[in-house]
Amino acid sequence: MSGWQQHLIIAPIVIPLIAGALLLFFDERQRVVKAMISVVSTLALAAVAINLFRLANGGGGAGAFDGVYLLGNWPAPFGIVLVVDRLSALMLVLAAILAIPALVYALARWHAAGAHFHSLFQFLLMGLNGAFLTGDLFNLFVFFEVMLAASYGLLMHGSGPMRVKAGLQYIAVNLAAALCFLIGVSAIYGSAGTLNMADLALRIGEIEGERRMLLEAGAAILGVVFLIKAGMWPLNFWLPGAYSAAVAPVAGIFAIMSKVGIYVILRLSLLVFGQGESAGLGLNVLLYGGMATIAFGTIGVLASQALGRLASYSVLVSSGTLLAVLGLSNGEVTAGALFYMVSSTLTIGAFFMLIELVERGQDAGASVLAVTMEAYGDADEEEQEVEIGVTMPGTIAVLGTCFAACGILLSGLPPLSGFVAKFAMLTGMIGMGASADQPVPASVWWIVGLLILSGLAALISMTRAGIRTFWASMEGTVPRVLVMEMAPVMLLIALTLTLTIKAGPAMHYMEETVRNLQQPRTYIDAVINARRAGVAEASGPDGGGGI
Amino acid sequence: MILVLLVCLPFVGSLAAVVLLRTDSRVLAARMAGAVTFVALVLTAVLYPSVRDGGKVRLDLEWLPQLGLNVTLRMDGFAWLFAMLVTGIGFLVVLYARYYMSEEDPVPRFFSFLLAFMGSMLGIVLSGNIILLSVFWELTSIFSFLLISYWHNNAAARDGARMALTITGIGGFCLLAGLLVLGHIVGSYDLDVVLASGDLIKAHPLYLTALVLILIGALTKSAQVPFHFWLPNAMAAPTPVSAYLHSATMVKAGVFLLVRFWPALSGTYEWFMLVGIAGISTLILGAYFAMFQQDLKGLLAYSTISHLGLITTLLSLGSPLAAVAAIFHMMNHATFKASLFMAAGIIDHETGTRDMRRLSGLLKYLPITGTLAMVASAAMAGVPLLNGFISKEMFFAEAVETHADSVLDRILPYVATLAGAFSVAYSLRFIHMVFFGPPPTDLPKPKPHEPPHWMRFPIEFLVLACLVVGIIPSLSIGPFLHSAVISVLGDRTPEYSLAIWHGINTPLIMSLIALVGGAALYVVMKDYLAKCDNGPPLFRHLGGQRIFERVLVTVSWKWARWLESNLGTRHLQPQLRLVAAAGFLAGAVSLYLAGFSPKPLAFKDVDPIFAAVWAIGAFCALGAAYQAKYHRLAALVLLGGAGITTCITFVWLSAPDLAITQLVVEIVTTVLLLLGLRWLPKRSEKVDNSVSFSARSRRFRDFLLAISCGFGMFLFSYAIMTQPVPDAIASYFLDKAYSEGGGRNVVNVILVDFRGFDTMGEIAVLAIVALTVFALLRRFRPAPDSIEKPEQQRIQNAFDAERPERSAGDTVRDYLLVPSVIMQWMFPVIATFAVYLFLRGHDLPGGGFAAGITMAIAFLLQYLAGGVRWAEDRLRILPLRWMGFGLIMAAATGMGAWLLGYPFLTTHSQYIEVPFIGKVPAASALLFDLGVFSLVVGATVLILIALAHQSVRMHRVRGLDAPKAEEN
């Protein structure tokens, strides 16, 4: 526990906290100062996250960095620990990378639409990062609350009856979920006597009889919370309303919020419930619930007229895919799922921000007609066919290209990362029967089918929407779009392209991540044996060899 | 390396064309595209020596090696032949398009897409990894979509493009799945490995799955029945696109795939039946439909479908000789069909219409084009001395052979002859109706004339190729075809002859019957065809297109909407019900499955007073729930009662810290809620009170759920609490609180030291909530029905109004005068108490949180006592500063530990001697606690202000109605 690298672990929480607090000293009118603070903080966050990512990936030299931070210098099961391993580092980077475009986008106009946008934004980042870093169940609750409280504020940023209505629904559901969280955590503490995840993983093997049953019941209740957050059907009806009501940059950053639930499920299920008697607790719930979620999301994608809802349902498809695939509990498939998570988060973030730009030039009534016209297509057959193309204004061309890229990403078509992700998952799944010459399980075929159908639905829906938006209504005025708003979207899409090209190394990282997760021993040892600063090392083996 | 260049070059060209978008020069884009395609053609051509006689060029680049997905490019004889086709016809089409596209068209976009398409097509052809192949496969679908919809201001182009994308997209997804299964069977995605594992694949239980999926991919792409209907609709594309994508290359991708996997997949009964049925029905239906088309391009499109069916049929047979014929026919079809499309494009270009009912006698105006078209049609019809004839003869010869004994096999010769006759008929019709007969009368462009020579050049070249191949096949195409055949069939390459004359045999007789029969058929039907509506009788109104649209709308829209609204909800109540049910089930089911049996409740040593307190608490809680809907004030008061019970419980169980905190929190929340109550909408008196049965049962269900949750929670906690205490971390806290934490109040030490980080998070939550409330209420305007003054104030004002000596508002001002004065005086007392609580916190009950709330109560009382204006005139509180200071203080305390080399939030404690007071504990945690204090004050006051300012704002709103703003 020494060196500045070690203190870097807490930076993703402290930086936004201080930035958020500093911002409170400035009046809403001092927009430039506020924007500066926010940007600097977010950039610093990204730098820290990338550094931690490198360290977690073994970049800091073995032994120098064990990824464990003992808060208050209390030894592991007693104080709170923060842990950086490959998974949490990945999530940190993803959050930071999504935050920068969202913030830049917001600076163009949205940050002025209400009070305290920047503070809330920074607190949201703090909550996200805390949830990714913490190794303590109650602390996880705290950061969930930080994140959720900030998201309440951000969701209602910009005001208007629709946002307030969606926001209040969101708050009510999440408060109920928070209650479940508390019940679950207290049940676990009551029956296991610890809150530290690593310690819990150690103890769970020794707990027997009724205490174990109670512990598992507590864990199940806790699981419900994360499923609500991840948006599993039928606990996800709040999501389309909330996400589509949020202003564009907020919806963009919300793309990673639903992944927090997934992250926790992945973390706890492999760390605590990965081995021993409680192994595979609730995997079937994930599997079938995930499949139902994909189906529901797919239906929603098809049934959505407004682009915002289409995007929200894509969030559900993405969540459902991850849940179902995690439910299979297979290493290779999980690695593919991680890749998919990164890809789909970037995609959905870009898409939410794009939608607002696209819809700026449109009148609301046009979208209602489009689908019904398709049904009674005879109406336009009399139209004079002019076989001369129309030159598109530059803005439209750029928006259209980005829209097409989003469509390609959402439906998992090549050449962008959506395809690679889908391929990685599918190849892992179909390969599941390979090892022992056993047939591929039926549930796998169902998921394969659902994945393909969901891609198809996205394709149909996106072409429908794209044609309606860009081609059918050429009379519509060209939306006034700033470079500052276009660039973030393009950046995110460019990232997915990079992810495609660098698919090999990226996938390698995911595989290593999953390997770590499947060997919770390393994590546990690192936490339990983490050295306190300035205290002579007591007994016990050497303080963990990095995670 | 040339392979990479070959695949990348078109994409680079495509990007370059995008850059040219801004320039006006359409010639530049065309020249650039021409140069790119020509270079690609040359690059392909120079590779021939390495692929001759079974040679292969291969290049591996790592992409996703761990999953077996690599950029493997591989060229063999077959791929070479196809690549020549793609680049060669590509070049001709670019040349043609240069003249075809109108002056006003934004051609850079066109050439950009066209080049990108060419790159994708080359990618398919050269992929040595089956997943990479699927990547390029989807890319062709995407660029085909963009090219068909190039004139996207036409509804037909948009619809056609979307249909093509949907159909080929479905196919592409299935293909990917099929290839994944195939790769799973083989254990590798490398094409060479797959091709070498034919027997393994055919014996595998998943063979049929893979086959069906791959076939869906191939058949959709090659527009085979029942997926054929997208192709005629794709004719809304500009003609060069139709010539290139929809006759020569993209639609060939499907049959290309069948040939590519022919060694690995073919030869089984399933293959024969599936491919055969699709091929034969496409062959005959396509030819039949083609006869009845009135649109030139429609005729050619259906003819293309039919010819693709012919190739598919050949491939279904599973005999090597048939495969040779299939490969040969692919090339032949591409040459004559591309030239015909271009000819049709010229006719359209010159006359302004493609409707055969309006065209006639054009040979006079377009003599050269007409002659060229006639030769090409003759090739299409299979007239001797042209390339179409040779491959068709080979087809007939194979059709006669028995391959897999079945009805399909037996009817094949007849079907083949019939389809041949149809194709003669429609070829004849094409020529006769367009070029012969009386001069045209109502052309949109009255004076058609020959196009520029370079526009005609591609047709001339292709027709020449038809002739050369048709006359001296073994000298022209022979060696190239042979290389291709060897690369596909390997050592199964059969003896075949490309001679024109095989003597009088069955195929020749079949050809003759087809020729004569087709001519006769046309003569008989000529008059009907000249006038009939578009499309064949009976099928005219049963278009695949309409069915497709209807199905798509029904499934993807009507059903989806129905399902969405029935599987989901936008209301809050059902969602909360689901959350509660899920939480309950999660706990109950997992306990039930584990076989948990609850212990009997044991009521012993019950303290009657404690029990009574709890009975009151339970009553309050239930009452609050019962009254919550209509009597908010009562519910709130009862809620307070339940809260007090909790406080008493904490005291009772020796947790004074919690009790204090609970008490102050209870006070503040109740007061804040009471302040907010004023702005909630009134109870609607008009609600229908007659409750229906369904509503009753719904309520009963919710009631049951609530009872289950509550009772379940009770049993659950009881079970946990009656377990033996686990070896919890709590004992550690008790041990170390004083020795290492420096405080005797363990709860406070936990809050600010052991788990100070949690506290830091929680104060952040408080800050965020306050900000959110503030931001929300800042925009809040009261609902119209709560703008009115409260009843009490109205009565008081009425009282004033009645008495002349009182002015309005006097009573209101005097209301509760004495209590408010006392409240004002209380301020210093409470503030001192807060400081006291704060300072003693580390050793005795108290602490920053409790102190902060107490301080906030002091402010709260001032607002209550004097009103907003009064309080703010006298007290200048900047809650945001307090909050910011608090957070920074807490964080800075934590960071202070860094200076000493300790982790965040490590504390240090000692006692310092303060004059007059004595020893004061001065743990660094005290500073942290100061932060907590400051934040809690700030956040609570911010919420208070947000609520309190509503009353000020209300006047502003009302001020619009009544000019005289009243003072409250």
Helix content of chain B: over 70%
Largest sheet of chain B: 2 strands, antiparallel
Oligomer: heterodimer
Structural class of chain A: mainly alpha
The total count of strands of chain A amounts to: 2
End-to-end C-alpha gap of chain A: 14 Å
What would the principal axes of the Cα set say about the shape of chain A? globular
User: How far is it from the N-terminal to the C-terminal residue of chain B, by CA?
Assistant: 86 Å
Greatest interface and its participating residue counts: A-B, 151 and 141 residues
Overall number of structural domains of chain A: 1
Low-confidence stretches of chain A: 367-385, 537-547
Strand-pairing-aware structural class of chain B = mainly alpha
Report the principal-axis shape of chain B: elongated
Radius of gyration based on Cα positions of chain B: 43 Å
* Percent helix of chain A: over 70%
Provide a count of the helices of chain A: 22
Strand content of chain A: under 5%
| Fraction in beta strands of chain B | under 5%
Poorly predicted regions of chain B: 958-968
Order of helices and strands of chain A: HHHEEHHHHHHHHHHHHHHHHHHH
Instruction: Round the Cα radius of gyration of chain A to an integer and report it.
Output: 24 Å
